[in-house]
Amino acid sequence: MTTVTAPASSASNPGWFSRAEGWLDDRGKGAWIALMVLGFVFFWPVGLATLFYMIWSKRMFNKSCSSRRMSRSLNTMRSTGNSAFDSYKADTLRRLEEEQTNFEAFLERLRDAKDKAEFDQFMDERAKPGKDDAQA
Description:
This protein is mostly helical. The protein contains six helices and no strands.
């Protein structure tokens, strides 16, 4: 009975493509975009191939802003181990959320008042020509 093993050289010495891919991944999405732009500038098929590869391998859409925002919100709710600080943080966050909802309600009332004032002005201007026509 024989067993098949992968050649040791492929695991320890990846090809140039794998090394380049790893190097670009270490530097982030900006490096991939820079490669794509330079590819379009110097030889457009290289830029197009890079764009297709980024889409195909889902490098274009991984780690979106929403996932970063979600991880940040999870970190704020994590306990630090200091109960006094955790209660202070919870009270402060609750107060800030309350202030935010009050401010949003204020802005809504302000928009409503502005809309009402503009509508009243429109109705007054619309009513004036009717009065002038009746007097003439």
